[in-house]
Design goal:
With 140 residues, the protein is mostly beta strands. It is built from 1 helix and 11 strands, in the order αβββββββββββ. The protein has one domain.
Length: 140
């Protein structure tokens, strides 16, 4: 391979890696006077944790496969609400999604569908496309 061909191939690889691989992030609307963007008035006490009875496979469009599923028998606690849905954090564990970077993530659930993830460190929402149907009756 000559130097020009190597350069073109390298450039194509760089463009491809930058085009895919990032976790999509949608900034949340900031309301002055609120300490957190996550509306915690919807929080439920620890006695209301939900138990996911079966594993749920997740496929992100980033091309990375760190967390391919929500584990069976995992516990989730409702910690608030976003305009996109109710937010659940894992109990006694950490859940993350991976793109070019790894992000701690909470589930965002609306109408029994996993519609995305709340990224607490970034205070942002990451949509999941397509949304994933969750087992009936698990997430209120």
């Amino acid at each position: 391979m000559n130097i020009l061909t190597k350069f073109v191939v390298s450039l194509a690889v760089c463009i491809t890696l930058n085009a895919c691989g990032a976790v999509k992030v949608v900034p949340l609307a900031y309301t002055p006077g609120t300490a957190h963007l996550l509306d915690q008035s919807a929080a439920i006490d620890a006695n209301s944790d939900v138990l996911l009875p079966v594993a749920v496979k997740i496929r992100l469009d980033t091309g990375y496969y760190r967390n391919k599923e929500l584990a069976a028998q995992s516990r989730w606690r409702r910690v608030g609400r976003l305009p996109e849905g109710n937010v659940y954090r894992p109990v006694a564990s950490v859940f993350s999604v991976e793109g070019r970077q790894v992000h701690e993530a909470y589930l965002v659930v609306r109408d029994n569908m996993l519609v995305g993830f709340y990224l607490p460190v970034e205070s942002a929402f990451s949509p999941l496309e397509p949304a994933i149907q969750l087992p009936q009756g698990v997430f209120p």
